[in-house]
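One example copied in:
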Amino acid sequence: MALLSKPSFLTGGVKIGLLTIATSLCMPLTQAAPIYKVVDEKTGQVTFTDRPQSYEQQTGKQISQIAITTGNETNGSGVANTAGSSSTSSNATSSSDVINQPVSATQTLNAPATATTTVPVKAPVSYQLTIAEPSKERAYRRPAQSIDVAVQIKPALQAGDSVRIYLDDKEVAQGLSTSIGTVNVLPGAHTVKAVIQGETGQTLEQVAITVYVIQNNTTLQNNKKIAQQLLAYQNLSWYQKMKLKLSQKEVAQSQSQ
């Protein structure tokens, strides 16, 4: 019978061990820490952290606590909730981690309102366009004369509109006046046209007049005569050129006396 009885010290040790295990099971495995949401008022960026004190001194930050904590939670029986623990550990961070995520469409932030700019609608303007010069059909002698063009417009041009001057559908100038040389203009009838173009390139108003370019026969004959004299001088020998220069010099001296 003595062999079947348990020693008192062994029984006491078993009790102490069981008490320690039960106490450890009833205690929470990890102390839970609250999670805070930090919203940047300028950019709308949302940050989740368990250290809100690092954002309290920053301007433009909205800090609020949410119903999420870090660490493991225990149920009423003292057993750790492994499903909640795995879910919390996958969605929450440790004390040194921060989660940044964009704001979803369902989140409401106190972001500053964006100013809206209203672009005024530009009403069409009814222009009156006239060609003041030349005021009527006239002829110009080529190449001595130039075609002077002056345009008048009422009311004043609006911003974005422009006046363009054309000769035979070729743009020669922009503005209210210009001078068109006739050196490279062939003899005959030509059209001078003024056009008002809008900001997008559409034609708002236009007016045209016909002018005539004629060949100046006197000038043409003089030019031919000068060309013939130059060609004849180039065909002279050097002795003849020297003699001609001396004779011209003597004539000039006699005329000056």
In short: Residues 135 and 212 are 13 Å apart (CA to CA). Residues 8-26 form the longest helix (19 residues).
